[in-house]
Structure formats: C-alpha cells, structure tokens
Design brief:
Chains A, B, C: Its main location: membrane. The structure is a homotrimer. With about 475 residues, chain A is mostly helical. In chain A, about 70% of the residues lie in helices and about 0% in strands. Chain A contains 17 helices and 3 strands. Chain A is globular, with a radius of gyration of 23 Å.
C-alpha cells in the first residue's frame, strides 16, 4: 500500500515543477522571438521626428497614440477586470477566475503580438508595433477569455496556457483569412472574437464533459458578495463596450459612429433582458445571472456593424432582439445543452457570445449589403469598406456575401480548433495513478466510472489558486 | 379564506407581467421615436469626409470625439459604477442599488437623448447626435440616480421607471429654461443636475413617507464588505468628478480649467470632512458614511463655476466649506428631516447633492458677477460666457442675476415635478387586496394602520432583485 | 484609582480634537498659500485664446490637456483605487487602508502642487499649474502611498498626515536634485517615486518596530473577500501602469514608446511570478500575495527606461527578472527583514517597490549609457535626453553615470528622511498615561515591556476607522 502514496508524491513533485517550467520556458521563448522580430513602429520610435517631417505632420497630436490610447485602456480594463470579475459569480472559483484570467491574458497578449504581427505588421523582417497592435492583442486574448468562461472550474492552469497558445494561433489565422483574404470588416469582432471564441470554448467543454460534475453543484452556487463582484465585471464590460467596438475603427467619423451605435444597442438590451428575466422567472423576480450577462449581448451583436451606418434606431433594434435571445438562452438553452449535448457551459457563453456573435455577423452582412453611396457619401463609402486597389470594383451586395462567408469560416475554425486542442491530454491526472489525460480521454472504457473522478473534480475545480 | 389567496395569485400574475410589459412597450416606443427622429450628427456620419473639407479641417483629430470621448467614459463610469456602488452600503439593498440603477439609467439615457435632442440638437426634423449628446444624456440620468438615492429601498422597479420618465422630461425642460432662455452657464450641473435632482428626490420621498419604516431599521445597517463596495463608488465619483465638470465645457482652456478647479475643491473637501466627522463623533472615530459621501460635496459645489476663472484657491475655499456643511448635515440635519419633516433620505442626498448644489449655484452666480475682461482677456471673456448675438450687451452682474434666477427655477421645477409624479399611484399594492397606490396614498384614513404595511415594507424593501 | 481614568478621559478629549485641528489648520494653510502663489497656467487660463495666437496654434486640440488628461485619470485611479484597494488584503485593515490612503493622498496632492510648483513651475512670483502639475502631484503622493504600505496598521491618521508632509517635502527636494541638478531622466519614477518612497517607508517602519506585534497576527490574515478586493487594486495598477510611465513623457513617440515598453514588461512579469510562486510553495499552489504584488514589479522596473529605446524584448527581459526577484523576496527576504533587521514590512513594499525600483534605476542608467544617434536618430537623440543648452555636450556614458548617481541620492534622501520624521513622537500614546511618543521611543528602557503595548497595538491597529 506504500506504492500509490509514493506515486502520489512523485506526481506532486512532477506537478510542482510543471507549471513553473511551462511558464519559464515559454517566457524565454517570447523573449527570443521578440528579440528577433519585434521593434517599435514608426510612431513609437525615436526616429518619429524625422518621420513626422516626411509625412508632413505639423503636430505630435497626429500620433496614433492620441487617437487610440484612451480606447486601448478601456479595452484593457474589459479584458482583465471585465472578464475576470464577471466570472467571480461562483463562490468557489472567485480566485481562479480572476487569477487564471490574469495569467492566460498576460501570456496571450505576448503571443498575439507575434502571431498578429507576422500576419499584419511584418516589414523587412521585423514586426513593427504600436498602440493598434496592443489593442489587437487584447482583442485576440478576449476570445480566449470568452472560451475560458465555458470551462471555468474544469481545468488546471497548464491546460489553460496550452489552450491559450492554440487559440491565439488559430485566432490569428482566422483573422487573416477574414480581414485579408475575404477583405471583410469586423471592427468589434462579432465573428473573429465572439463567434470564434465562444464556439471554440464550447467545443473544448464538450470534450471535457464529466457526467459526475453535477455532484459538486453545491460549489457552483453564487453568494451575495460574489454576485456584487460579478456586477463590477458586468458594468465595466457594459460601459466600455463602445470603446471596444470603436477602438480600431478608422480615425474620425467611424470611431465616433461605432461608439454611438454600441451605446444605443447596449441600452436597449438592458430593457429587454429585464423584461424577459422577470417574465420567465417564477414570482417575477429578476435573475442576477441574466442581469450580469444578457445585458451585454447588445454590444456583441453590433461588433461587426457598429462602424457602418447602422443608425441609432438600427442599433436599438439589434439590442432589443439580443436581450431577448440571450435571456431565453439562459433559461431554456443552457440546461438543454448540458443534458442533451453534454456541453457544460459554466458561464453561459453560448448565450452571451455565441448567439449574439452570430447575430452580429448576420447584421454586419446585411448592413454591408445595404450600403449605398447616398447614405455614406462618395468618399465615405470607399473609406468605410476600403474599396480600393484590388477591391475597387466590389459592390455592397458582394461585400455582404463575403461577410456571411466570414461567419461560416469562423465557425469551422472554432470547431476544428476546439477539437484539436484536446485538453484532456495535457491535463492533470485525477488520481496520480494514470498518466495525464488518461481518465478524461474520450472513448476510454470506464471513463465515467473511474474511482478517482470525484477527487479529480474537486482538485481541478478548486484549481491551484 | 380561499379568496384572499386567490386574489394574491391574481396579483402575482399581474405583477409578473407588469414589469416586462412596461419595459417592452417603452423600448418599442424608443425604437419608433429613434427611427423617426434620431440620426448621426455630422462628425459621426460617413459624410464627415466632405464635412471636413467644408469646415476646412486638415485632420481627423479635430473630430469632437477626440476632445470629449475620454471624459464621456469617465462620466459613464460615474453614473453606472459610481452611483450604483455608492448605494450598496446598505447590506440588504446591494443588488437593488446596483441593478435598479443600471435599469433606470439604461432606460433614462434613451429618453434623454430624445428629450434633450428636441430642445438642443433638432435640425430639419431630425435630432443629430454625437458624443456631446451622449454626455448630456448621462448627465440627465445622473439627476435621476441622485433622486433614487433618497428613495432607495422604498420603491419597485416600475415606480423607478415611471419616475425616470417624468424626471428626465422635466430635467430637459428645466435645462432648456436655464441654458437657452436664461442663457446661464452650468457646465457641471450644480443647478440642473444636483439641485434639481436632489430636491425632486426629496419631494418624492416625502410623499412615500412610511412611519413604520423604522421597524425595519435592522435591514438598513451596513456591514464591513458593503462599506468597502460603497467605497468603490465613492472613489470613482471622486476621481472622475474633474471629468464630469469639464466634459461639456468649451474646447481648450475651459475644459482644462474646469478639471483643475474640481480637483482642488475635492481635495480640500476630504480634509474638512475628516475633521468634522472625527469632531462630531463620540470617541473621535470617523464615520464611514461621511467619508463615503461628504468628500464628494466639493465636486458638486464647483459644478457651475468650475469652467469660470474661479482660481485654484477659490476652489479650495468652496471645497473647505462644503465638506463641513455636508458632514454637519449628515449628523444633525438628516435625523431632523426624518423626524420633523417626514423626509426619509436613505442615502443622505440632501447633504451630498441638495445643499452643495445650492452652494454651487450661488458660487457660480458670484463668480459670474465678478468676471472682468481683465481676468478673462477680451476674447476669453466673450467665449467664457458666450456673450454673442442677442447677449452681446449682457454684463457680468446681469449674468450673475440670471444665474441666481436659475437656482430658483430649478428648485421650483423640482418641487413641482416631485409632487406631480405621485409614485404611490403606480406602486405595488402592499397586500394585493387594495388597488395599487391605495395604502400609501397621502391623506387616506388609516394609512399608517393598514394591517399589511409591514409586509409591504418587506416586500418592497427587498425589491424584485 | 480615579486618576488614570480621568487622565484617560482627558486624553480622549485631546485625541478627539487633535485630528480635526490638524486637518482644519493645514487646509487653511493650503488656502492661504494657494491664494498667494497658485494660478492657472497659460493653457488653463481664459487668456489662452491670445496665447494660442502668440504660439501660432491653429487648434484647441494642441492644448496639453488633450495630450495628458486621459493618462492623468489613469494615474489618479492608480493612486486612489489601486494603492487603496491593494492594501485591503488584511481582513481587519480594509477600511483603514482605503480610507487613510484617501485622506493622505487628498492632503498630499495639495502640498505637492505647492512644493513641486516652487521648484518647477514658478514664474514671476506665481506657481502656474496645468494638467502636468496634477500628474506630478499624484506621482509625489504615490511615493507616500508606497511608504504607507510598510506601516499599514501601525499608525494613527495624524502620524500619516505628518509623514505625508515630511515625505512630500523631501520628495520635491530629491526630485529637484535629480531632474534639475543632475539632469537625469526618470519619467516613471523608478528612483524618485519607488526607490525613494519604499526606502523612506522601510526606515519609518524600522523605527516603529514593535516586537509584540506578532501577538496580533491573527488580525493580519486575509480572507476570501479581502483578497478579491485586493485584486481590484492589483489589476488597476497593472492595467494603468503604461499610463503611469508615459504620463509626463515628451509628446509623441516618447509617450507611445513608454506605454509599449511598460505593457511588455508587465506581461512578462506575470509569467515569472506565477512560475516562482508555484515553485516555492508547498504543493505547487499559487500564493495570492505574490499574484497581487510581484506581478506589478515589471512596471516599477521600467519606470526610468520606458521612454528610452529599451525595445520590447528588453522590456520583456526586465519584467522576467523582476517577477523572479520580487517573488523570491516575498518568500525569503520579508521574513528575514522582520526577524533579523526588525523591519516589519506589512505589504512587502521592499519586494514590490524597493528592489524593482533599484533595478529600474540601474536599467535606466545602462539604457542611457548605451544610447546612440544611430538608434535614436539625430533629432530624437537630443530630444530624448534633452541634450540642449548647458547639457549640449553631455555624452550617453556621462548621462549613464549621472543616472546611477541619482539612485544613490534617492537612497540617501530616503534613509535620512525616514529617520528624521521620527513618527513615534507624533503618535498616539498607547495607554494615555505617558506623553505621546514615549512608549515607542527607540532606546527607552522597558520599551518592549511597557504594560500597555498590547492595548496600543489593538487601538492603533484598528485605527480610527
């Protein structure tokens, strides 16, 4: 009987060194890759003085920093405080939610700077970065935070880091296909961030399905204070979403318009969320989960179209619909997904990101297809859709078709990616007796009857925080 | 004995549908009105490229978005996180405070965009909105959040929505009288937001007076964590108040000056709040309620004059006085108002908004009356008070008189408005036996002896959240 | 036996009046000094219209307000919410941490505006202030907040105000020596803010050493919610640190670069903090104290060099090292400092600010010494180090030497200042029997055996909040 204990100790020692090793080696890799590839872009480089003269700029205020830095900081708050605290509603996973979100985002932004840099900012062998790259890196990591919401409480930090590496890579590829090859617009990332991130996470959680998880449901309850902490996350996401959707839009009217559209959509979404939350609950009480999540669906759903001439009332309509869809999703769809499709969606990202993301992609396609020179003005029309060079002759309806194709591509990438990650292989072995990944492996006989599954759920659920 | 129960069920069904119906119908109304009236302003419209050429602007950075968006986001945080969390200090109303504040503000900003738009941004049949409209809508809703502070824990969400509809409407009328007819300055809204909002709320709470409320005083206590949550609200209001008072000032020096004056006033206010809180308490301990509220009075009281040449030491003096007035108010005036005037001011808005708002109006009138071309410069003088067109010949002392008149108008509008709303009629019936509004109706015999009052207090107090 | 009680009452009365008197008298002094000295700078004055014409500026957007105000607000949040909430991790000092931090910062910024104004913005007998002065005042107070972290739970509010007065004064002198006399660069304050503030605080806590403090260790524990509150502080410091390090950099590329370098350093720091926290703990669990603090060390350590051409990978390396140094410090150095050197460092500022600050100074010196015209460009080189006028002929290696001298000066000023403050003299007498300062005085026989020390620890520990 000594042996298992011995093995357990060996496993503990192994575990103790694995997370540090992964973190250190990856960070060393980042330093080497940054050393080889990453340099300051022209607006952040000390040669800017000369650059300014060449570009005939008379003032430092023309530096992109002043156009985008306030929005960048708002996005930054959304990623770290918004997503982090939104997930603190479970009384047992508060630390894990905020802490692991912090870890994966801090790693993810570095890898995203590289991946997105190779695709979009690569000039004469170097990636030249500026504030827009920082925003895009935060966006990319946002899609990982979304996926994290589906698997919250079911993974170890190492699994999260592995997932981040995979997902950021695929995100950059998908983004390249959409923005560069299909030449579509998606400033607020309805497709690239929300649809992709959510379906990626849902595929991963499907693979991580553990039938016995319901036994630990008592840990999933919320308490008064955890709900107030979660409201901090909700409100920061809600307030700063106009910055999110406008952060990388074209200077001037496009940024301005994207903020207004998002503001309107979010406002309408709150009203329909409250309406349906009250209507679908017994006694007409409001459900805090709906208030915390469904109120944000309006921001997701104008992600693609916010910088277009969606108009304020168009935004209200989108928000109106999404508040309903998202709340109904929490009440009817989440239980269905778990019981029938074995998809345990801890934070309900299917309702907050997946469905609204799809709606956002569709709204974007329609808005693009309906664009006319009359509405946008001659120059505004070309600027809004970047119909220059190769794309000079593209018509709005063709653009709408490509936008729709972007949704399909994002979905396929998400399903394929989520399946490929295969987190169980990288996971913490539940008992220390089998090699990592064994117990959770799909198809292995006795998976659900493994005697140590329950212990595993507990140790993983509480994470290492 | 079956009947009352049956009635109760009927009432429950009725209640269950009322909030959803109000939310949905009103949101539909918003969509229709936005569809008919609201369009993007020139700086948010895709025609901006042509507009720029007409206005001879060489850079996108001249778009009003870049002048005001960072301040807008700070104001946005104040309304949703600041006011929301400031009211979480009561251990039982934390959800209600944050959640209902969220609901009323999200509805209010839509109605405010319309009301203020008709008065100020109406051109050829359309309301043209930009970032300044978003700030003004947030401002308008701020006055509703203030009023909410007086009635916290005493109303249902429907009553709050009714109050929001009324108050936003009256706010816009009052603002139109002050800014357009009287041509007075009130950038930070000492009169339009704080004086109006606070006396409106105090009038409403006077009408909602329930003598038995003291029986539930055990629910009004604060606990350690609720006080820390409230400090989040306090600090965000305190930090971002310079943005609040400068958000809609003229570009350039006026915005800059407003931020500095507010920063100074708030800093001084903290010192006198601490001094008087310690002095007036037994054992010299500090009262968290004073720290949470009275420290903010300095921001309210420079609302009108912040963009004027109040000077940093003038701001310190205003903050110095307001910290004292507000703290003394919490210690002596709030109990007096409740016991003698039957005004139950849950959050003490009389001390934080009403009195400092009045002081702010008076300071503004004096600062305006004392203005000289010497202090402001020839051009600066005209720009600061917009002494152009019809008002070309107005003198500082006349301006001071009009500023003072603005205080009186705001007070009258608040009293009249608060009385007209008559929330009890819209309220939740306490027992389900009488029609809504019955038990709480002023002057009805037996009001305080209604056998179900106590149950009512409980059910309302806990709200629907 | 009546007498001690009587004395106790006398002392209570005395205490009750002392804090209010200090607050009121000091605020009156501020008003008088502001009245004599402080006026609006040209960009905040109503004469700006004329100023603009003289400076040949065509747009209000050229006002410094628009270059710096968003960063100012981020810094403001760091000082009041960041530092305030970071210190709430102790379950008993949550109020004290946030409340006293609020008080000292609100007083400190006023005194800092004066002190720094006399040294840097004094023109024809007046201190002319603008947004940059507000940022600098916040920076100065930041160093006091850091020092507060070392003595948290050991001082009364009056002692904190005394310390603030001393430290702000010395900060301004030290800053003047470094920036003006030695002509060194320190935009993010690795030396002036962090090294100076931390060693000042550590010297003060050494003097306040109380051997019996360990008896009250049960009060120092953290609880679940206090750790989540502390994470709010951590995340806001982490997210806004790029704004901190870039807030007063030169317009244009320098601000842009400082933000990018800080972003990179902080990201790397999180990974090594997690690695070493997991490695050095039993069972490989993460320690929340490390996550809350060591993750920020990367921001401190690029404070001096962020605006230089440190390059993104250079920043990653600095962050990499600092995460390790800081975490190891928490595990091994903090206990050593307490047991051997009698330095009770409540929040571990030696690991978060002192060591990373020193590293930051050294990295700055090396980066400056390694600067070449090739890397910076001819104009960029002169602009980056302000090699104009008297300093036209200074070479990078000489600049590096001066930078290194700045570290030494900051250290000496901190040790001298911390010793001179001698807080115990100003303190609350632990028992009311001896005059203030008696029991805690260094070298007094029977210091540790004073019968009332324990009561003192309790009453002081809980503070007046």
């Amino acid at each position: 009987m000594e042996r298992p204990r011995h093995q357990g100790m060996a496993k503990n020692t192994y575990m103790r060194w694995r997370l540090p090793l992964v973190c250190l080696l990856w960070e060393v890799a980042m330093i080497i890759l940054f050393g080889v590839f990453v340099r300051f872009g022209p607006e952040a480089d000390a040669h800017w003085e000369e650059e300014k003269q060449e570009m005939n700029l008379t003032s430092d205020i023309e530096n992109d920093f002043y156009f985008r830095y306030p929005s960048f900081q708002d996005v930054h708050v959304m990623i770290f405080v918004g997503f982090g605290f939104l997930m603190t509603f479970l009384k047992r996973y508060g630390f894990g939610a905020v802490g692991f979100n912090f870890l994966l985002a801090a790693f993810g932004i570095q890898w995203a700077l590289l991946m997105q840099g190779w695709f979009h900012s690569f000039k004469s062998g170097k990636i030249l970065i500026g504030v827009e790259n920082l925003i895009n890196a935060d966006f990319c990591v946002g899609s990982v935070c979304i996926a994290f919401g589906a698997i919250l409480g079911k993974t170890s930090p190492i699994q999260l880091l592995i997932m981040t590496l995979f997902q950021v890579t695929l995100f950059a590829v998908n983004e390249y296909i959409l923005l560069n090859l299909l030449h579509i617009k998606d400033a607020g990332g309805s497709m690239t961030i929300h649809t992709f991130g959510a379906y990626f996470g849902l595929t991963v959680t499907r693979i991580l399905y553990r039938p016995n998880l319901e036994q630990s449901k008592d840990k999933q309850g919320s308490v008064y204070h955890s709900d107030l902490f979660a409201m901090i996350g909700t409100l920061y996401l809600w307030m700063y979403w106009p910055s999110f959707n406008s952060a990388i839009s074209e200077h001037g009217d496009a940024q301005h318009r994207a903020a207004i559209n998002t503001y309107c959509s979010l406002a309408a979404c709150v009203l329909t969320t409250v309406a349906f939350s009250s209507m679908l609950q017994k006694k007409g009480k409001l459900d805090m989960v709906h208030i915390q999540n469904a109120t944000l669906a309006g921001g997701v759903a104008v992600g693609t179209s916010a910088e277009m001439m969606l108009t304020p009332y168009g935004s209200l309509i989108v928000g109106f619909i999404c508040g309903i869809v998202s709340t109904v999703g929490y009440v009817y769809l989440t239980p269905f997904l778990e019981s029938r499709l074995h998809i345990q969606d801890t934070c309900g990202i299917h309702n907050l990101h997946a469905m609204p993301g799809l709606i956002g992609g569709i709204v974007g396609a329609i808005t693009a297809a309906a664009a006319t020179e009359d509405v946008y003005g001659k120059e505004g029309f070309i600027k809004a859709f970047d119909f220059t060079g190769t794309y000079r002759t593209r018509t709005p309806s063709v653009q709408g078709g490509f936008q729709a194709a972007g949704i399909v591509v994002s979905l396929l990438m998400a399903f394929a990616g989520g399946t490929l990650v295969d987190l169980p292989w990288w996971g913490q072995s539940p008992c220390g007796k089998h090699r990592p990944g064994w117990c959770f492996l799909r198809g292995v006989p006795g998976h659900s009857s493994c005697p140590c599954t329950r212990a595993a759920i507990q140790s993983l659920g509480e994470g290492q925080l």
